Fold this sequence. Notes:
Layout: H1 15-19, H2 24-31, H3 35-54, H4 60-80, H5 89-96, H6 102-125, H7 131-211, H8 213-242, H9 246-259, E1 263-267, H10 277-298, E2 302-310, E3 313-320, H11 327-330, H12 333-343, E4 348-352, E5 357-364, H13 369-374
Amino acid sequence: MFKSFRLFPKKEGFYPYIGLVYFILPLLGASNETGWKRIIIYTLLAVFLVLYRQLYFVQGRRYDQLIFVQLCLLVVLTLYAHPMNMMLGFFISPMLSFYEEKKKFSIMIGLFIATEVLAVAYLLFFNHVDWKTWFYTVPFLFVMIGMAFAIRSGRKKQQLQQELYEANEQIKALVQKEERMRIARDLHDTLGHTLSLITLKSQLLHKLVAVDPARACQEAKDIEGTSRAALAQVRELVTEMRTTTVAEECVSIQQLLEAAGISFELKGDPTLLNVPKFMQNIVSMCMKEAVTNIVKHAEATRCEIVIERSLGEVSICISDNGRGIEEELVLGNGLKGMQERLSLVDGELTIHAVAGTQVVITLPIVMNHRQEEMGV
C-alpha cells in the first residue's frame, strides 16, 4: 500500500517538493499564536497543504473547486492570521498554469488577482497595516501573476515539443511501412521473373539430361548466368536501400525544419550527379546530424544550406541564426561521429560560431580526364 503512494506525480519532478519549503514561513507565523487561534490556523494550513497536493491528481470541475477553496483559505489566513500569508499565493499561482484553455485561464487568473487585491485593500484601509509592510509585500503579487504566465508558457512549449516528437515518430513509422512496400515491389519485379526463369530451365534441364546432354549442358550454363544476374540484382537492391542521396536528404531536412517551425532555404544544386552514392550517403548522415543539432539545441528560427561545387571539390555549408554552438557539443559524440565519417572519404568538417552556428562540410571529388575536359 505504502509503496504505491506518491506525494506528487513523478512527471512533475522536484518542483512541488521545492515549493513546500515556502510553507515554513506560515507555520512559523502560526507558532507565535496561542490557544484556539493557533489550532485553527494550523488546521487551515493543513487543509491548504492537502488541497495543494490533490490539485496534481484531479481535473475538470473538481480542479476548479479546489482552486476556489484555496483562494478562500488564502483570504481567511491573510486576514485572520497574518498579512504575510498572502504569500500562499505562490502555491496557487503555478496551479493556474495547468489551464490550457485561454478563456478559462483568463477567468481564473482574474479571480486570483481580485482575491489578492481585495485582501490587500481590506488590510490597508480597515486593519491599518503598516505601509512599509506592503511596500515589501505587494511586489510579490506581481511576481505571482508573472509566474502563472511563465509556467503556462513553458508547459505549452513542452507540449508542442511532445507533439512534434509524436508526429516525427508517426512519420518515421509511415516511411518504414512505405519502404517495406517498395522493397516488396522491387523484389517481385526484379527477382520474381528471374527465379521463375531458373525454375523453368531447371525443369527443362531435368528432362534433357538423358535425351540431349549437350543441350542440357548449355541450359546449365544459362541457369548459372541467370543466377549470377539475380545475385547482381539483389546487390543493387541492397545498395539502393542503404544509401541516401544529398538531394533526398535535403527534402527530409526541409520536412523536419518545417515541423519544428524553423524556416529553411536551400541554395545550390543538391543533385551532385557525379558524386558516388557511397560518398553522398556519408554526407547525408552528416547533414542530418547537423540539422538535428539545430532543432534540439540552437533555438533558431532560420536555417540555410548552401551547396557550392568547384573543380575537384564540393562544399556544403549549414548555418542557423540560433544561440551558437556550445563547447561541450563541439566535442560531443555527434560531431565527433561526423568527423569520423568524413575521414573515410577524405572530407573535412569545420565549425564556426558567428551569429549562430555554421557547419561546413568539404568533400574532395576525383574526376576522370573526360569529365575535366567537359568542365563537370
